[in-house]
């Protein structure tokens, strides 16, 4: 249990603007921020699905002509960011809007770094490497998973060096996170599930992290309930606005939790595997999560038990067929903690998610590659927040078992 005598800092400077059809009012927000020419970062799929239309229409009607950059690939890379920076500079943009999933949002953040700093983007990689404010930013998520709209980090792939660059700075907080659940209706089932498991991983890793605090705990717990109760429905019934609203809100809450408390071993491995093989972040977390939970079991049994009691006590099994979440007050900590791991496995099954790295398209892992991945993951900043000590051997075991 988090001790209330322990000092902590919780920060969130971002205004959270949540509601159906709020994207149609984005021009007012741009005006509030003093912007006159907005760069809209998005991807072609979102343009094709007309997801950007309400925001673009709002900007056009207000006379704030949008400059649209729609060339963001999934798991964006430096080349894409550089192209967008050049375009935005040429057009004289003074506000940055992202409409998309984590890849688009992280691209927009990196573009903003480049708009306000001279030099190679690699020079600004790392934690606290930015020295001044960037241009105003409005981030509009169209997936419910990354929480990037309220986080102070951006992850960009450096394809040349086969790794993901991490940018972390308070200047990467958005001015406004605009959450419009209607924008998620077109998100296909497999992406709904995969992105949702990123949020579930944020809840569970931040809840047991070394820097968890009372505020991040409450966000992680409530977001966990919303996700277990609504993610299977959002996956199978994409136009269920109640389920979409709940998962979008939960993703944002989990984003606030991990931004302040950190993540752990599952993310360290997912970042490493994603950097090398380009696998989807949420999907990679989904496969690794049960293994990460089991690894941490000895140090976090009490916390997992607390999470399970909160989840099972919420009555989530009344509406969803989780056999592991039927509340039983007689379970001891060990039994409750194990029930939480089974609940995650049931959630993966209900959402039709893969259970092995092989199913993500990763080729045979040789001893050499496993060791390389484990060693790189040991240097990932996420590992610092993992509750128990992690060794290279632990990571090797997870990689072998998860394959
Ligand atoms: N900065 C952070 O705090 C943070 C946290 C976690 C993950 N990430 C990053 O986020 C990225 C993953 O983001 P993601 O999981 O949101 O996926 P994504 O942004 O890569 O999107 C995946 C696909 O979904 C499509 N899509 C998105 N919204 C849609 C919609 N509403 N309808 C139809 N299609 C839609 C996109 O076009 C894309 O093809 C990774 O690069 C990861 O590193 C960042
Ligand atoms: Fe994540």
CATH topology of the largest domain: Dehydroquinate synthase-like, alpha domain
Mean pLDDT: 96
Based on secondary structure, the structural category is: alpha/beta
Order of helices and strands: EHEHHEHEHEEEEEHHHHHHHHH
Shape: globular
Count of separate DSSP helical elements: 14
The radius of gyration computed from the alpha-carbon positions, rounded to a whole number of angstroms, is: 20 Å
**C-alpha termini separation:** 33 Å
CATH superfamily of the largest domain: Dehydroquinate synthase-like - alpha domain
Query: Which strand order spans the largest sheet, edge to edge or round the barrel?
Result: 1-9-6-4-2-3
Largest sheet: 6 strands, parallel
What share of the residues lie within helices?
Answer: 40-55%
Overall domain count: 2
Description:
The structure is a single chain. By secondary structure, the chain is an alpha/beta fold. The protein has two domains: 15-182, Rossmann fold; 187-402, Dehydroquinate synthase-like - alpha domain (Dehydroquinate synthase-like, alpha domain). Helices cover 51% and strands 10% of the residues. It has a six-stranded parallel β-sheet with strand order 1-9-6-4-2-3, sandwiched between helices. Strands 5-8-7 form a three-stranded mixed β-sheet. A hairpin with a 4-residue loop joins strand 7 (153-158) and strand 8. The two termini are 33 Å apart. The structure holds nicotinamide-adenine-dinucleotide and fe (ii) ion. The site of fe (ii) ion has 6 residues, from helix 6 and helix 10.
């Amino acid at each position: 249990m988090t001790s209330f005598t322990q000092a902590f800092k919780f920060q969130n400077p971002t205004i959270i603007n949540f509601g159906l059809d709020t994207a149609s009012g984005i021009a007012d927000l741009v005006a509030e921020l003093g912007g006159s020419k907005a760069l809209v970062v998005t991807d072609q799929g979102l343009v094709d699905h007309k997801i950007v239309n309400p925001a673009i229409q709002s900007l056009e009607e207000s006379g704030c002509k949008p400059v649209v950059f729609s060339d963001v690939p999934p798991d964006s890379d430096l080349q894409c960011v550089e192209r967008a920076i050049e375009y935005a500079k040429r057009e004289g943009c003074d506000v940055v809007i992202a409409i998309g999933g984590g890849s688009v949002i992280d691209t927009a953040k990196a573009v903003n770094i480049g708009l306000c700093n001279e030099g190679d983007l690699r020079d600004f990689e790392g934690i606290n490497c930015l020295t001044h404010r960037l241009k105003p930013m409005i981030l509009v998520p169209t997936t419910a998973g990354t929480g990037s709209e309220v986080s102070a980090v951006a992850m960009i792939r450096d394809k040349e060096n086969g790794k993901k660059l991490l940018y972390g700075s308070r200047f990467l907080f958005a001015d406004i996170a605009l959450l419009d659940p209607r924008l998620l209706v077109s998100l296909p089932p497999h992406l709904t599930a995969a992105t949702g498991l990123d949020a579930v991983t944020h809840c569970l890793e931040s809840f047991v992290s070394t820097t968890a605090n009372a505020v991040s705990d409450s966000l992680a717990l409530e977001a966990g309930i919303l996700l277990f109760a609504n993610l299977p429905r959002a996956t199978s019934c994409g136009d269920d606005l109640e389920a979409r609203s709940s998962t979008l809100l939960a993703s944002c809450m989990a984003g606030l939790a991990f931004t302040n408390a950190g993540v752990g071993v599952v993310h360290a491995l997912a970042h490493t595997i994603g950097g090398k093989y380009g696998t989807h972040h949420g999907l990679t977390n989904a496969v690794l999560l049960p293994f990460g939970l089991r690894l941490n079991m000895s140090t976090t049994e009490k916390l997992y038990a607390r999470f399970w009691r909160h989840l099972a006590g919420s009555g989530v099994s009344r509406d969803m067929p989780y056999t592991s979440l039927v509340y039983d007050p007689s379970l001891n900590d060990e039994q409750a903690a194990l029930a939480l791991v089974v609940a995650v496995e049931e959630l993966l099954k209900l959402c039709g998610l893969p259970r092995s790295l092989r199913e993500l398209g990763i080729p045979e892992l040789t001893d050499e590659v496993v060791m390389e991945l484990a060693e790189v993951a040991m240097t990932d900043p996420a590992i610092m927040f993992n509750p128990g000590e992690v060794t290279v051997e632990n990571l090797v075991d997870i990689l072998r078992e998860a394959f």
